[in-house]
Amino acid sequence: MSETPVLSLEGVTRRFRSGDETLEILKGASFDLYPGEIVALVAPSGTGKSTLLHIAGLLESPQEGAVRVAGRETRTLSDTLRTQIRRDEIGFVYQFHHLLAEFSSLENVVLPQHVAGVAPREAKARATDLLTRFGLAHRLQNLPGKLSGGEKQRVAIARALANRPRLLLADEPTGNLDVHTSDAVFDELLHAVRSENVGALIATHNEELASRMDRVVTLRDGQIVAK
Ligand SMILES: Nc1ncnc2c1ncn2[C@@H]1O[C@H](COP(=O)(O)OP(=O)(O)OP(=O)(O)O)[C@@H](O)[C@H]1O
């Protein structure tokens, strides 16, 4: 592929000190994710899945290696620039929705755009469009407390996509939902990600959900390999 990856990890090494021991969780891990590509990360618990997502999301730094987001090397950047890249280029979805309880669905999706400096009218139009695509046109003014689990997670996904990120990182995005709802929300997530041409790295323990993505990778001995 001649396109620039939205995420490129090269020789990423991450160690933690634990008492007298040093744990090397990532050992020169390398991985490229391209625009519009959806990759499942299926790895046994404790092998470094969260560490990998935190590094890809610029929430922590590796001791060695390069982390490029949309072609830009990030390790040497200031915290301010890393925060800016996180805000403008990366969307996050977690197992728990983390919506702001005192704001409506619409406001929760407007807010990140507001922080990024998008004009109010444009932000509202984008939020309305996204929420409508997630079947929530009738829920725009509802507070999260009035929404079902699936609806809250749909709002969280819409919020992650609000600033048109190039990279979406998700950690068990439907892990808190019952099987039927998880299935539906996951389909909508994949559809939205494909239609926005976002590159997505989605951690899941669910092999069936993983099989719906473009490829599946795992963590083996500190490396990212095809599963
Ligand atoms: N800040 C830290 N200090 C020390 N050790 C850490 C730290 N963060 C993670 N680890 C260790 O690194 C290993 C990988 O942790 P990580 O949270 O990335 O695993 P994971 O694959 O996401 O697990 P799970 O699926 O259970 O969340 C674990 O053994 C963990 O104890």
Automatic annotation (TrEMBL):
PROSITE patterns per UniProt: ABC_TRANSPORTER_1 (PS00211), ABC_TRANSPORTER_2 (PS50893)
InterPro entries on file: AAA+_ATPase (IPR003593), ABC_transporter-like_ATP-bd (IPR003439), ABC_transporter-like_CS (IPR017871), ABC_transpr_LolD-like (IPR015854), MacB-like_ATP-bd (IPR017911), P-loop_NTPase (IPR027417)
Pfam families named in the record: ABC_tran
Superkingdom of the organism of origin: Bacteria
Alphabetized GO MF terms: ATP binding
The keyword Lipoprotein appears for this protein: yes
Domain ABC transporter: 7-227
Transmembrane domains' residue ranges: none
Keyword tags: ATP-binding, Lipoprotein, Nucleotide-binding, Transport
Homology family: Belongs to the ABC transporter superfamily.
UniProt name for this protein: Lipoprotein-releasing system ATP-binding protein LolD 1
Organism for this UniProt entry: Asaia siamensis
Gene name as annotated: lolD1
